[in-house]
Amino acid sequence: VQLQAYGGGLVQAGPFLRLSCAASGQTFSSLGWFRQAPGKEREFVACIVYSGGNTLYADSVKGRFTISRDNAKNTLYLQMNSLKPEDTAVYYCARGWGQSTSRYDSWGQGTLVTVSS
């Protein structure tokens, strides 16, 4: 599967932003979002099963971010509300399930989100 994340940008703290990830190839899989801030390790954000019926979130984004997917459009989404400066990172979409990067086998190239205070 090939994945391409987009929709990042520069926003002020508070408003919302929605990221998208276009998938092609074998898309009958769980998908997830990770992020990597400058100088830090890549960390889990959220993941969703193919049916959309089960999701998992990192504690740091729970209640603020929502992961969803439109299988007819082969697109994964991450709705990010109440953004904080600490949400600044490059956001990656990937194929897999769980909180560990080792459980994902295909990665998009990432989109940068910068949240100013």
- Structural class given helices, strands, pairing? mainly beta
Distance from first to last alpha carbon: 37 Å
Q: Note the main sheet.
A: 7 strands, mixed
Shape: globular
Poorly predicted ranges (pLDDT <50, ≥5 residues)?
Answer: none
Kindly state the percentage of residues in helix: under 10%
Plain-language structure description:
A hairpin with a 4-residue loop joins β7 (65-70) and β8 (75-80). The strands form 2 sheets. Strands 2, 4, 5, 6, 9, 10 and 11 form a 7-stranded mixed β-sheet that branches. The protein has a 4-stranded antiparallel β-sheet with strand order 1-3-8-7, with no helix packed on it. The protein is built from no helices and 11 strands. It has strands at 2-6, 10-12, 17-24, 31-36, 43-48, 55-57, 65-70, 75-80, 89-96, 104-107, 111-116. It is mainly β.
Q: How would you briefly describe this protein structure?
A:
This protein has 117 residues and is mostly beta strands. The chain is 0% helix and 52% strand.
